[in-house]
């Protein structure tokens, strides 16, 4: 399926098949014997994209199926299961970094008018708590959104395969470990359901993927204007100040009517001694590292003084500033618990 075709709206029959798959999955109640660690992979027959399926509901909080997509999906699930430290102490960043399509079963008042309109148009009726299907697309840095045609088709296949895999696990709880090389623990392999087109339609087979994929890694950011860094090091006076800083996603969204809203980046600097806000800036893109470094350089150039130390509130911000700060001759330190910085961030977000 081409990208242009996938981005079209799904027709009624495609939506109906998705609803039927979701209803069947809900009735099965596979969260009674599957948990978050029992995830498996499915290849999208339409695009060849790999998705990692996670059954929701084992904790009794939310019921449904998430299909994590994108090149870092496998590594992200390792992070969620505690096997990595990329998002250490940064749950907000982890939440906004999710790329997935999902169905969850909600109360009626959790659905918006588009959800309810689609249900009415297809002739479905649902009653009770956590019975109403809601389908969503999650994209890093953006608000959740409805599904396009390609996503409707992929989520349908994923739900149908999730039903079959869950039945196999109900009968054989050691299914995932039969192909492992470990006697205990999470195991080395993950079930992967692979489609094959035949004259009689799609036939699915098992493959086994390594569970331990390459971890999410971010290298220190290299700012391109080396001359500007050298000038800051040479010309700006030293001080005994301590600056505190971080960048994160703002709580509010921005977007024109009819367009998908996005969460801007909030780049914040605070004077560590007075706790006064030095500067705040909103960035339109998830990757705001260049803007963030330039914000630091403007503060240095405007005040003609450089701090003895910069305290940074997240690992991502530390890696964004590390090389530039050290090249200028400023000590930089990562500390996820900086009270004045956290208070300033909350005040700005709640004031928007």
TrEMBL record:
Q: Give all residue intervals belonging to the DUF6930 domain.
A: 228-348
Q: Name one Pfam family in it.
A: DUF7309
Q: Which domain of life is it from?
A: Bacteria
Q: List the InterPro entries hit by this protein, alphabetically.
A: DUF6930, DUF7309
Q: DUF7309 domain spans which residues?
A: 15-182
Q: What is this protein called?
A: Uncharacterized protein
Q: In which organism is this protein found? A: Paenibacillus hemerocallicola
């Amino acid at each position: 399926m081409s990208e242009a075709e996938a981005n079209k709206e799904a027709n009624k029959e495609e939506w109906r098949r998705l609803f039927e798959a979701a209803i069947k999955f809900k009735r099965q109640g596979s969260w009674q014997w599957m948990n978050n660690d029992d995830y498996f992979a499915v290849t999208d027959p339409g695009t060849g994209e790999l998705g990692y399926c996670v059954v929701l509901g084992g904790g009794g909080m939310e019921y449904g199926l998430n299909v994590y997509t994108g090149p870092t999906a496998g590594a992200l699930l390792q992070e969620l299961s505690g096997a990595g430290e990329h998002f250490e102490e940064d749950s907000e960043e982890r939440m906004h970094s999710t790329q997935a399509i999902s169905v969850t079963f909600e109360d009626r008042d959790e659905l918006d008018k588009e959800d309810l309109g689609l249900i009415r148009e297809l002739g479905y009726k649902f009653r009770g708590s956590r019975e109403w299907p809601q389908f969503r697309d999650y994209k890093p840095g953006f608000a959740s959104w409805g599904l396009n045609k390609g996503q409707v088709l992929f989520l349908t296949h994923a739900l149908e395969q999730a039903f079959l895999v869950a039945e196999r696990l109900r009968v054989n709880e050691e299914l995932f470990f039969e192909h492992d090389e470990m006697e205990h623990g999470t195991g080395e392999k993950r079930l992967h359901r692979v489609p094959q087109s035949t004259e009689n339609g799609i036939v699915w087979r098992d493959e086994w993927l390594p569970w331990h994929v390459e971890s999410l890694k971010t290298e220190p950011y290299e700012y391109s204007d080396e001359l500007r860094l050298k000038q800051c090091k040479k010309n700006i006076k030293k001080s005994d100040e301590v600056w505190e800083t971080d960048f994160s996603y703002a709580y509010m969204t921005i977007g024109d009517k009819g367009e998908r809203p996005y969460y801007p980046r909030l780049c914040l600097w605070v004077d560590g001694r007075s706790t006064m806000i030095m500067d705040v800036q909103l960035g339109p893109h998830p990757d705001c590292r260049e803007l963030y470094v330039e914000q630091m350089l403007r503060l240095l150039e405007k005040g003609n003084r450089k701090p003895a130390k910069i305290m940074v509130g997240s690992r991502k911000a530390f890696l964004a500033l590390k090389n530039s700060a050290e090249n200028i001759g400023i000590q930089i330190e990562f500390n996820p618990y900086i009270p004045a910085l956290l208070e300033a961030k909350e005040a700005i977000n709640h004031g928007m």
